[in-house]
Amino acid sequence: SFVQGSKLEIPLWLAKGLHDSKRKIISVELPKIYKEAWRTVFSADANVVDLHKMGPYYYGFGSQLLNFDSPENPEIAQTILQASTFISRFRRIMDSSQNAYNEDTSALVARLDELERALFRAGQKGLNDFQCWEKGQASQITASSLAQNYGKRKFTDMDG
């Protein structure tokens, strides 16, 4: 049995299940990388931060933390989305995926969170597909699955 005020680490899914806004069975303490001191580090120079080492699902996990009633939620959301973090890193990731073709990018990729790694792979695949088409190794250019899904969603929205 646990006494009131006990601290323990539990999985996110369990914390979400126990953190009911009506019953208040548990309170959640923010992981250190989402606290104010770390948010200051990100705002200083987001490109040097090793997000994978700090948490391989930094953006996804951070967005899940917003389900809890932390007074720091607005600041966490701002840190996840602010230009000095995601957008500047996104530009660097896409530039690298397009310009570092056939180069060793392992040092860059090692520091990315899983969302950023997926973006990097998508950028490299797009470049590779284009180069294959340019060399005549592909008979046609096809829309990416992202573009196809966007088009389908847009037409579905118009139906309603």
TrEMBL record:
Any one Gene Ontology cellular component term annotated for this protein: GINS complex
The protein's assembly and partners: Component of the GINS complex.
The family this protein is said to belong to: Belongs to the GINS3/PSF3 family.
Gene Ontology biological-process annotations: mitotic DNA replication initiation
UniProt domain GINS subunit: residue ranges: 35-133
Matches recorded under SUPFAM superfamilies: GINS helical bundle-like
PANTHER family recorded: DNA REPLICATION COMPLEX GINS PROTEIN PSF3
Cell location: Nucleus
Record's protein name: DNA replication complex GINS protein PSF3
Transmembrane region(s): none
Coiled coil start-end: none
Any Pfam family hit: Sld5
Function per UniProt: The GINS complex plays an essential role in the initiation of DNA replication. Required for correct functioning of the GINS complex, a complex that plays an essential role in the initiation of DNA replication, and progression of DNA replication forks. GINS complex is a core component of CDC45-MCM-GINS (CMG) helicase, the molecular machine that unwinds template DNA during replication, and around which the replisome is built.
Primary location recorded for the protein, binned into one broad class: nucleus
Gene3D superfamilies: 1.20.58.2050
Keywords assigned by UniProt, alphabetized: DNA replication, Nucleus
